[in-house]
Design a protein that fits this description.
The complex is a heterotrimer of chains A (about 325), B (about 160) and C (about 400). With about 325 residues, chain A is an all-alpha fold. Chain A has one domain. Chain A has 15 helices and no strands. The N and C termini of chain A lie far apart (about 50 Å). Chain B has one domain (about 5-120): NADH:ubiquinone oxidoreductase Nqo5 subunit (Beta Polymerase, domain 2, 2-Layer Sandwich), CATH 3.30.460.80. Chain B is built from 3 helices and 7 strands. A 5-stranded mixed beta sheet of chain B has the order 1-2-5-4-3. Chain B has a two-stranded parallel ribbon with strand order 6-7. Chain B is elongated. The N and C termini of chain B lie far apart (about 75 Å). The longest helix of chain C is centred in the N-terminal third of the chain and has 28 residues, at about 105-130. Chain C is built from 17 helices and 8 strands. The relative contact order of chain C is 0.19. Chain C is globular and about 75 Å long. Classes of the chains: A mainly alpha (about 325), B alpha/beta (about 160), C mainly alpha (about 400).
Chain lengths: ~325, ~160, ~400
C-alpha cells in the first residue's frame, strides 16, 4: 500500500507538475524571488529591505509572513462586481500559470508528459493568462481596471507574435518542437547559435511577465493597480503571484532552449533520483530570474504606445529575421 | 519698455501713478480697468503675479488689487499695481481673463474666498472651499470662524 | 499665439459621450493631495481639470488673527521642505514696513540656508520625477541624499525642516563650529551623487523616452501664463527672483541662473540638477566670504538686556528682545518676492498700525503653476500625464495654502 503510494508520488507524471519544477517549487520560488527582488532593490537604493521576519537570515521568509497574512485577510467582494469573473479569474489564471510546468522536462529520462510538441503547448498555455486578466478587469467594474484590461489586451498582441516566432526559430535550428530533444541537440548553447532569437525571446518574456520596464498593466502611477485594483486577501496574493509564476516558467523555457537546459547533468545526483539531476536547470533559471528582478532597480516604465511600437516594429521583424537566420544555418549545415 | 514709459503713458490717460519703490501703483475706476490692463500688457507686463481682495468694512468697500509682473530685465524690478474699489454689497468687477490668461485661477480664488464677482469669467466655481460651500466668503472681516468649546472634565 | 487661442486651450470642456473621465483623485497612489479630472478620448487626453483645495489651511485668514511675528512659523508650513525660502519673503515685507535692515552677516547666513533648502527642494522634485515613471531607485536615492542637507540644516538652525530661521532684523542663530567643514564634505558628496544620477536616470534611454518631448512649453506661452521656477527657465526665460537684489547677497556672489531651450519635461529635470550645482557654488562662496559681525540688526540688538546680550552673541543664539512680543507694524503696505525651489513666491502685507497685519496676500509658486495642468496635457497620451506631473514639481500644500 505504502509502496504503491510512493510509486505514484515519485513517478514523473506526479512529481514533475506537483513537486519539481511544479507546484511546490513554484511556491518556494515565489517566496524567495520576491524577497530577492526587494533585497536587491533595497541594497541598490541605500536601504536595508525586509529584515525583521527572521533577523539572522536577513528577513528571508518575509514573503511567508505576507502569504500567511493573505490567508487571514478578508476577501472583500464588492457589490457592483460581476461575481463569476471576479472570483473565478484569479484561480483560472493561476491554474494556467502552473499547468505548463507539466511539459517541462527536467532530465533526459524525467519528462512528465512526453509529447513531441511540448514547446508550443507550453507557450500556448501561457497565452490563456491574459484572457483571464481581461476577465478580471471586466469583472471588477472599475474604470481603472478596465484601463488595465485594455492595456493587457494591447500588450498581449504586441509580444505574443514575437515570442512564438523566436521560439520557432530555435525549433527550426534544432529540427524539433520538443524541449527534451532541443536540449539533447544543443552542443553549443542556443544563445550562441542564434543570439538574435535569444534577445527577442528575452525581451518578449519581460513583456509577458510584466517586469520592469514593461510593468504597464499594473501601472501604479496611472491606474492604481490596473486589473488587480479591487482584489484583497488571498485573491490579491494570487494576482501578485501570477507574474512571478509566469516568469519562472519562461525562464525555465529560456534555459531549455538557449542555455542548454540541464547540461551538465550531475551524475551522482542523477543516480539518486532522476529529477535531482535537473538541479543545474533550476539553478540557471533561478539566476536568470535574479537578473530579471534586478532590472527593477535600473529601469522605470515605458509608455504603452512605446512598448507596442517596440513589439511590432522591432521585436517582430527581428524574430522573423531570426527564423530566416535559423533556416540559413540549417541549409548551410552548421547545425 | 521701461518704467518711465509706463509712468508717462499712465499719466497721459489722466491717472496718477505712484512709484513706491517696488511697485508702481495706480488707482482705477472699475469701468476703466480693462483699458489700463491692456496698456500694461502693451508696456510689457504680460502676466499677473496676484489678484487679491482687501475687505474694508469701515469704508464699505472691497479693494481689489492686481499686481502685474514682467519677466524682461528692464521691468522685472517693478510690479505694476492696479487698485479698484467696489462697493461691499455689490462687488462686481470686469474679468481680465482676455487680457491676462493667467487670471483664470487667481480671479477664481478671489471670488471663492472674498466674494468678488468677476463678470465674464467662464468658470466661477469653488476652488479652495468645498464645492458645496454656501456660507459667506471666509476672508471677509465679519466672518466669524466657528470655534469649538473647551470641554473641561471636573473631577 | 494670440491670447484668445491660449484662453481657448485653458478653458475646460465637458465633452460628449465619447469622452471618458478618469478621476485621479486624492485616493490614488500618485496624485498627491489633489484631484485631477482627466478627460480622455481613447488614449489621448482632451482636458484636465485640476481640482485643488484639499489641503486648504486658511493661512491668509490665520495671518490676520496672529501677531505679525507668529505668522512666520505659520507660513513656513506651506512648503515645509523649503521653509527658509517661504518665510524670507514675509520677513522682507515686514522689514520694509518696520524700516529695519539686517546686518551683512545675517544676509550671508540667510543666503546660506536659502541655498541649502533649494538643494533639498530640488532633490525632492527630482525624486518625484523618478517615482512617477516608477523608477524607484531615483526616488530612494534623492530622498536619501536629501537627508544630508536636512542634517546640515539641523546643525545650523536646530530643526530638520521647521527652521523658522529668519526674523525681522536678522537671523536666529549663528554658524556653529565646524559647520564649514561639514558643508564642504556634503558638497563633495553631492557632486559625486549628481554623477550617479546622470548615469542611472538622466542618461537612461527608458527615462529619456518617457520625458523627452513631453509637455513642451514654449517661451512666449511661459511668459503669458506667468509660470515660475525651473518650469519657466527651462523654456528659455531667464528670470529668477534672486536677481532682483531684494534679499540675500546674490548681487555680490558669482553664480549663473541656468536656462534651457527645449522646454520639455527632460529640460525641466536637467535644469534642476544644474541649479543644484549652482547652489553648491553659492554655498562655497558664502562660506568663504562671510563677514564677522552681529546677526541681528542694531535697532533690536540694543533692546536685549545687556546681561543676556553678551552670552547670546557669544553662543550665537539670539534671545528675542521684549519688543517682539508686542511688535507694532507701522501703517503702510509692502511687497516682497523671493525665489523658492519651486519658483517665485509673492507677499503683499497691508498693515494698519496694529500688532496684527490687516491683510497678508501670498501667492505661492505652485499656485501659479496650476494653470500648466490645464494647458500642457491636452493632446498627449494618458501615460504622459504622470510624466508631466513629475516634471512640474507641483506641491499641493503650497498651492492650497
Amino acid at each position: 500500500m505504502v509502496g504503491e503510494i510512493l510509486e505514484i508520488v515519485f513517478s514523473p507524471q506526479f512529481f514533475g507538475p506537483v513537486v519539481f519544477p511544479g507546484l511546490v517549487t513554484v511556491l518556494l520560488v515565489l517566496l524567495t524571488i520576491i524577497w530577492v527582488e526587494r533585497k536587491i532593490a533595497a541594497r541598490v537604493q541605500m536601504r536595508v529591505g525586509p529584515l525583521y521576519v527572521l533577523k539572522p537570515l536577513g528577513g528571508a521568509i518575509q514573503m511567508l509572513a505576507d502569504g500567511l497574512r493573505f490567508f487571514f485577510q478578508e476577501f472583500i467582494i464588492p457589490e457592483t462586481v460581476d461575481k463569476l469573473p471576479f472570483v473565478a479569474a484569479p484561480v483560472v489564471a493561476m491554474t494556467f500559470a502552473i499547468l505548463p510546468f507539466a511539459f517541462i522536462p527536467v532530465a533526459p529520462d524525467f519528462i512528465p508528459y512526453s509529447v513531441p510538441y511540448s514547446m508550443p503547448v507550453f507557450l500556448g498555455l501561457n497565452t490563456v493568462i491574459p484572457l483571464t486578466i481581461i476577465a478580471m478587469a471586466w469583472g471588477s467594474n472599475n474604470k481603472f481596471s478596465i484601463q488595465g484590461g485594455i492595456r493587457e489586451a494591447y500588450m498581449t498582441i504586441a509580444y505574443e507574435a514575437a515570442l512564438f516566432t523566436a521560439a520557432l526559430a530555435m525549433a527550426i535550428t534544432y529540427g524539433t518542437l520538443d524541449f527534451a530533444e532541443m536540449v539533447e541537440a544543443q552542443g553549443v548553447p542556443g544563445i550562441l547559435v542564434n543570439p538574435l532569437s535569444a534577445a527577442v525571446f528575452f525581451v518578449a518574456m519581460l513583456m509577458s511577465a510584466g517586469k520592469l520596464p514593461f510593468d504597464i498593466v499594473e501601472g501604479e502611477q496611472e491606474i492604481v493597480a490596473g486589473p488587480f485594483t479591487e482584489y484583497s486577501g488571498i485573491a490579491f496574493g494570487l494576482t501578485m503571484g501570477i507574474g512571478y509564476v509566469q516568469l519562472y516558467g519562461f525562464t525555465l523555457a529560456f534555459t531549455l532552449m538557449y542555455l542548454s537546459g540541464w547540461e551538465p547533468l550531475i551524475p551522482f545526483l542523477h543516480d539518486i533520483y532522476p529529477a535531482l539531476g535537473g538541479v543545474m536547470l533550476f539553478a540557471k533559471a533561478y539566476l536568470l530570474m535574479v537578473f530579471i528582478v534586478f532590472l527593477r532597480s535600473v529601469y522605470g516604465r515605458y509608455r504603452l504606445d512605446q512598448a507596442l511600437r517596440l513589439g511590432w516594429r522591432r521585436l517582430f521583424p527581428l524574430s522573423l529575421l531570426s527564423v530566416f537566420f535559423a533556416v540559413v544555418l540549417r541549409v548551410i549545415g552548421v547545425v | 519698455m521701461s518704467v518711465e514709459d509706463l509712468l508717462r503713458r499712465l499719466e497721459e490717460k489722466g491717472l496718477e501713478p505712484v512709484d513706491r519703490g517696488d511697485v508702481v501703483s495706480v488707482a482705477v475706476e472699475p469701468h476703466a480697468l480693462r483699458e489700463v490692463a491692456e496698456l500694461l500688457v502693451e508696456e510689457g507686463y504680460d502676466h499677473l503675479a496676484s489678484v487679491e481682495g482687501i475687505d474694508r468694512p469701515g469704508e464699505d468697500v472691497i479693494e481689489v488689487v492686481y499686481h502685474a509682473e514682467s519677466y524682461s530685465e528692464e521691468l522685472w524690478g517693478k510690479l505694476a499695481e492696479i487698485r479698484v474699489r467696489v462697493p461691499r454689497g455689490e462687488p462686481r468687477v470686469p474679468s481680465l481673463i482676455d487680457v491676462w490668461p493667467n487670471a483664470l485661477f487667481l480671479e477664481r480664488e478671489t471670488w471663492d474666498l472674498m466674494g468678488v464677482v468677476f463678470e465674464g469669467h467662464p468658470e466661477l466655481r469653488r476652488l479652495l472651499m468645498p464645492p458645496d460651500w454656501e456660507g459667506p466668503p471666509p476672508l471677509r472681516k465679519d466672518y466669524k470662524v466657528a470655534t469649538e468649546g473647551v470641554f473641561v472634565v471636573v473631577e | 499665439m494670440s491670447s484668445s487661442v491660449m484662453k481657448a486651450r485653458l478653458l475646460s470642456r465637458e465633452g460628449d459621450e465619447s469622452v471618458y473621465e478618469v478621476f485621479i483623485g486624492p485616493q490614488h497612489p500618485a496624485s498627491g493631495h489633489m484631484r485631477f479630472i482627466v478627460r480622455l478620448q481613447g488614449d489621448v487626453i482632451v482636458g484636465v481639470d485640476p481640482d485643488i483645495g484639499w489641503v486648504h489651511r486658511t493661512m491668509e485668514k490665520l495671518a490676520e488673527t496672529k501677531e505679525a511675528l507668529k505668522a512666520i512659523p505659520l507660513f513656513e508650513r506651506m512648503t515645509i521642505i523649503d521653509s527658509q525660502n517661504v518665510t524670507i519673503g514675509y520677513v522682507r515685507a515686514l522689514e520694509k514696513l518696520l524700516g529695519v535692515e539686517p546686518p551683512p552677516r545675517a544676509r550671508y547666513l540667510r543666503t546660506l540656508l536659502s541655498e541649502m533648502n533649494r538643494i533639498a527642494s530640488h532633490l525632492y522634485g527630482m525624486g518625484l520625477s523618478g517615482i512617477f515613471v516608477n523608477h524607484s531607485t531615483m526616488f530612494m536615492w534623492c530622498f536619501g541624499d536629501r537627508e544630508v542637507w536636512i542634517q546640515l540644516a539641523e546643525e545650523l538652525t536646530g530643526a530638520r525642516l521647521t527652521h523658522a530661521y529668519s526674523i525681522p532684523g536678522g537671523v536666529r542663530r549663528d554658524l556653529p563650529q565646524g559647520f564649514a567643514e561639514k558643508a564642504r564634505k556634503a558638497i563633495r558628496y553631492m557632486r559625486r551623487r549628481l554623477e550617479e544620477y546622470r548615469k542611472i536616470f538622466f542618461d537612461n534611454p527608458q527615462v529619456r523616452a518617457r520625458y523627452e518631448g513631453v509637455g513642451v512649453l514654449k517661451s512666449h506661452e511661459a511668459r503669458r501664463l506667468g509660470v515660475v521656477g525651473p518650469n519657466l527657465r527651462a523654456s528659455g526665460v531667464r528670470y529668477d527672483a534672486r536677481l532682483l537684489g531684494d534679499y540675500g547677497v546674490y548681487d555680490e556672489l558669482d553664480f549663473v541662473v541656468p536656462t534651457a531651450e527645449e522646454g520639455d519635461a527632460m529640460a525641466r529635470l536637467l535644469l534642476r540638477g544644474e541649479e543644484i550645482r549652482q547652489s553648491m557654488r553659492i554655498i562655497e562662496q558664502v562660506l568663504e566670504r562671510i563677514p564677522e559681525g552681529p546677526i541681528l540688526a542694531e535697532k533690536y540688538l540694543r533692546l536685549i538686556p545687556p546681561k543676556l546680550r553678551e552670552p547670546a552673541l557669544k553662543e550665537g543664539r539670539i534671545k528675542f528682545p521684549g519688543i517682539f512680543a508686542n511688535l507694532k507694524i507701522p501703517e503702510g503696505e509692502a511687497v516682497a518676492r523671493a525665489e523658492m525651489g519651486h519658483g517665485e513666491i509673492f507677499y503683499h502685507v497691508v498693515s494698519d498700525g496694529s500688532k496684527k497685519p490687516y491683510r497678508v496676500r501670498v501667492v505661492t509658486p505652485s499656485f501659479r503653476n496650476v494653470v500648466l495642468f490645464r494647458y500642457l496635457p491636452p493632446g498627449h497620451r494618458f501615460m504622459d500625464f504622470p510624466a508631466i506631473y513629475g516634471s512640474l514639481d507641483y506641491f499641493p500644500p503650497e498651492s492650497d495654502r
